Amino acid sequence: EETGLAEKVITIYEKGKPKGDIDEETLSLETHSTFRVVRGLSELMRRRTHFEESYTVNPQRVRTYLYEKGFVTDEEERASLLLKASEEFDVPIEGIETSFWADREDYQIVASIDDISASDLVRYYNLSLTQTLLFDALSLEFTTSGNYQEIFRMIKFLGLMYEIQSEGDNFSVRVTGPASLFKKTKKYGTSLAKLVPKIMKAPSWKIKAQIETEVAGEPRIYIFELSDSKKEFFPDVLEDTEQFDSAVEEHFVKRFSSLRKDWEIKREPTILKAGPSVMIPDFSLERRGKRCYVEIVGFWTPEYIEKKIKKIQNLNQKILLCVNKELQCTRRDFKENADVILYDKEVPMKPVLERIRKIELEQLQEEKGKLSLTDIELTEDVTLLRNIAQVHNVGVETAKEILQTSDTGIVVGDTFVKNSVLEEIQKRLENLEDMRLSSVKNVLDEYGLNEDVLGKLGFEIEWKTLDLENAVVKKVQSGLE
Q1: Which among 352, 271, 274 is positioned nearest to 309, based on CA atoms?
Q2: What is the reported pLDDT for 45?
Q3: Could you give the residue range(s) of every CATH 3.30.70 domain in the chain?
Q4: How far is Cα 46 from Cα 12, in angstroms, rounded to an integer?
Q5: Crossing angle, helix 118-134 and helix 35-47, to 10 degrees?
Q6: Residues 6+ apart with CB under 8 A from 151
């Protein structure tokens, strides 16, 4: 029903139509049961519409001229006066009539309209209703999975206060206003409502609000809850194109991503408690549950650096801090909870990768402690290591190290090959008359293997030229290594 009403409201708004006509047509749509919805939809359309004054002669000059001529008592006198005005201002009579009230709001005409579908208009109406409900909110609690910078920037802009509660990686934020410390008040409801679109912009979110309203003259407090499970009823918020605070950050992401494809880099991944405040790290580097937070501190004001140092000193977990050498701070300023890398024009990758490698080695030992060779079921003659890693939720490196202890086969490149298959391949190659590499590769292709296995079987490739057809495979050892 609401979508049908939205379609009718949208058709009322036409380019060139006066605002007064739009109001009259909107009024004609209203019924006892729909007037609130119609007015709400129309107000949202009005916000998407640009009105402008349209006249050929300044309306105030036209009115002054006609009023000075006195009253008219019939149509003939009226027509005569309009003709005189037409001659005075050198415009057609129609121009005089349209200009007379053209500077009044009802006579403004539609110049342009932002396109919107009926279903999207209803979604914006639902958002508006939610915000209106929150006008009576005493407080607001929320959890999100992103968009932290925008949310906390808006909290600060609105002059609100927040309190963080965290359990492991999960957290909730309770938002109120300063006066709420001393008494219950709804004076911050409007500000809380303005925060909602920023929360809804996150990939996942949940809000919970205390709403005070009167029932039979008595104040009652109700709990209002909403989450992204209902997101289809609200506007689709397009994700912003990722923007970096500096070229240093952008280069860091590109270089790290190209060097370590097995790690995922996330921008502004979460909120970290820093004493009474919060800190949103620039990045997190993540791989199978392991995480390393990264903060890049570039060219900022002394006040910013002072606040940043204080926050980092209050963090309850470690962070990799990349600090510009030109800033007036040293490693000692950040105490022991920050691993500091100093940089000049860009963050050096070598020390970053060294830190990451430490995490990888720790993870390798942890995974090896949880998985043994007997846990791995090898049903195929040739098995990709990544498939084994996926089944057991470990890294390829872990699967490789464990399988290297097996006496039923060997690891060749990114595969595990059973001994029976290796023996079969070895016999076929020993009996192969055409030992050109191209012919040998045809045999290996049947088993899903490449030339890496040749060394394990006692063969080597002799390259005479770069041409594959001129390369030959020779036996150099008597059997399997």
Answers
A1: 274
A2: 92
A3: 135-229
A4: 11
A5: 100
A6: 144, 195, 198, 199, 202
What residue spans of 315-348 are helical by DSSP H?
none
CA distance 19 to 52: 10
- The helix or strand, by DSSP H or E, that contains position 444, with its residue range, turns out to be helix 437-446
Fold of 135-229: Alpha-Beta Plaits (3.30.70)
Tokens 């009718």 locate to 8
Q: What type of residue is 417? A: V
Alpha carbon distance 360, 127 (integer Å): 45
User: Does domain 247-362 fall into CATH 1.10.3470?
Assistant: no
**What is the Cα–Cα distance from 404 to 416, expressed in whole angstroms?**
9
Tens of pLDDT, residues 110-168: 889 988 999 999 999 999 999 999 988 888 999 988 888 888 888 877 888 888 776 55
The residue count of the chain comes to 481
Are 338 and 321 in contact, with CB atoms under 8 Å apart?
Answer: yes
Angle at alpha carbon of residue 308, lines to 359 and 143, rounded to 5°: 70
Which residues of the chain register pLDDT less than 70?
1, 166-170, 178-186, 237-245, 276, 299-305, 328-338, 478-481
pLDDT tens-digit readout, 303-357 = 666 777 777 777 777 788 888 887 766 666 665 656 888 888 889 999 999 999 9
The closest alpha carbon to 159, from 131, 187, 191, 185, belongs to 191
The residue behind tokens 């390798």 is 364
Name which of 234, 144, 150, 133 is nearest 189 in CA terms.
Answer: 133
What is the enclosing helix (H) or strand (E) of 224? strand 218-227
Give the whole-angstrom CA distance, residue 399 versus residue 387: 10
Q: Which pair of structure tokens corresponds to residue 473?
A: 């495979």
Q: pTM for the whole thing?
A: 0.56
